Amino acid sequence: MKINVDIDCTPQEARTFFGLPDVQPMQEAVMKELQSKMLENVNGLDPENMMKTWLPAGMQGMEQMQKMFFQQLAGGDKDKK
Fold it and tell me: Is 31 inside a domain boundary?
């Protein structure tokens, strides 16, 4: 025997019927806070500031990579002799 029951109600009505708490005000507050934090961080995404932050470290890394590469080339000749 198979019984199907269709209930037509909104999510809010279902939460109320089952006695679940209404979390909508909390969700709205959290979303507003999240939005304000994201907008604050967007201001820090200025391309000029990002390049100033990344370029010195990137250039230093390139110099280290070049030194390591040249050391390997110079050291490779000594091992073959």
Answer: no
Residue at 5 is within a domain: no
Q: Is residue 81 part of a domain?
A: yes
SS (H, E, C) the chain: CCCCCCCCCCHHHHHHHHCCCCCHHHHHHHHHHHHHHHHHHHHCCCHHHHHHHHHHHHHHHHHHHHHHHHHHHHHHHHHHC
Q: What's the structural domain count of the chain?
A: 1
- Over residues 26-43, the pLDDT tens digits come to 999 999 999 998 888 777
